[in-house]
Amino acid sequence: MSKYYYVYLIVTKRNNKLFSYVGYSNNVSKRIKLHNFGKGAKFTKGNYWKLIYKKRYKNKSIAMKEEYILKKNYKLRKLIKEKYIDE
After folding, report:
1. Per-residue pLDDT at 87
2. Domain span including residue 43
3. What radius of gyration, in Å, describes the C-alpha atoms of the chain?
4. Cα–Cα distance between 63 and 27 in angstroms, integer?
5. C-alpha distance across the termini of the chain, in Å
6. Mind giving me the DSSP string for 28-69?
7. H or E stretch including 9?
8. Any idea what the CATH number is for the domain that residue 17 is in?
């Protein structure tokens, strides 16, 4: 059985502004818990993060490539955040 990898987008609110972070993992719920307990990336420390987007990939290398694309595509990130806000 193959293990799937996910690209995810999490958000937090600081000073009434929505900040986002993009990452990849094979266990998204565990990864978000680590972010929320200050064990994630330096950028995510000290904030409460909420998952708003995830997409599954068949292997790690594809997930890493897609993560890089989403990290750099600010227009797409903004669209995902706007969809989240509208819900």
Report:
1. 66
2. 5-86
3. 13
4. 13
5. 35
6. HHHHHHHHHTT-S-GGGTTS--EEEEEEEESSHHHHHHHHHH
7. strand 5-14
8. 3.40.1440
Amino acid present at 10: I
Output the CA angle 48-17-85, nearest 5 degrees.
80
Sequence letter at residue 7? V
Please state whether the predicted TM-score (pTM) of the whole model is above 0.85: yes
Please say if the pLDDT value at position 71 is more than 70.
yes
Does the structure show a pLDDT above 50 at 68?
yes
Q: What is the pLDDT of residues 35-66, one digit of tens each?
A: 999 887 888 888 899 999 999 999 999 999 99
**Could you give the CA distance from residue 25 to residue 9 in angstroms, rounded to a whole number?**
11
According to DSSP, residue 3 is labeled P
Q: Domain count of the chain?
A: 1
